[in-house]
């Protein structure tokens, strides 16, 4: 789906009404992005068995026990893989990959 939407956005020599629509182009791009993200999240939600989430059974038990102690009805847990952009694992990995030296910017732009 992402490749299809990217192909529609591509600038070509012929007239493309999607690109020439002004503010509607921006709305179309946002809608396309949300469709792709919804499709990705739906895949993750429906393919939890293929993503090996059975390894997280201890976490699920802990969440269920905590919910019972707090008298809260627990929902269905969905484990996001680290490859999903914006997941806590992905954000933590991005933070550890960035340079931690404060003078790095100074060295790059000097």
Automatic annotation (TrEMBL):
Residues 4-99 form the Helitron helicase-like domain. The lineage of its organism: Eukaryota, Metazoa, Ecdysozoa, Arthropoda, Chelicerata. This is Helitron helicase-like domain-containing protein. Residues 88-110 are annotated as: Disordered. Residues 88-104 have a biased composition (Polar residues). It comes from the Eukaryota.
């Amino acid at each position: 789906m992402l490749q299809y939407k990217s192909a529609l956005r591509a600038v070509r020599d012929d007239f493309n009404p999607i690109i020439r629509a002004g503010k509607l182009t921006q709305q179309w791009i946002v809608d396309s992005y949300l469709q792709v993200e919804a499709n990705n999240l739906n895949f993750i939600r429906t393919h939890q068995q293929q993503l090996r989430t059975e390894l997280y059974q201890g976490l699920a038990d802990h969440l269920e026990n905590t919910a019972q102690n707090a008298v809260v009805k627990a929902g269905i847990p969905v484990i996001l893989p680290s490859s999903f952009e914006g997941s806590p694992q992905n954000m933590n990995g991005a933070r550890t990959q960035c340079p931690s030296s404060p003078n790095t910017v100074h060295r790059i732009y000097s």
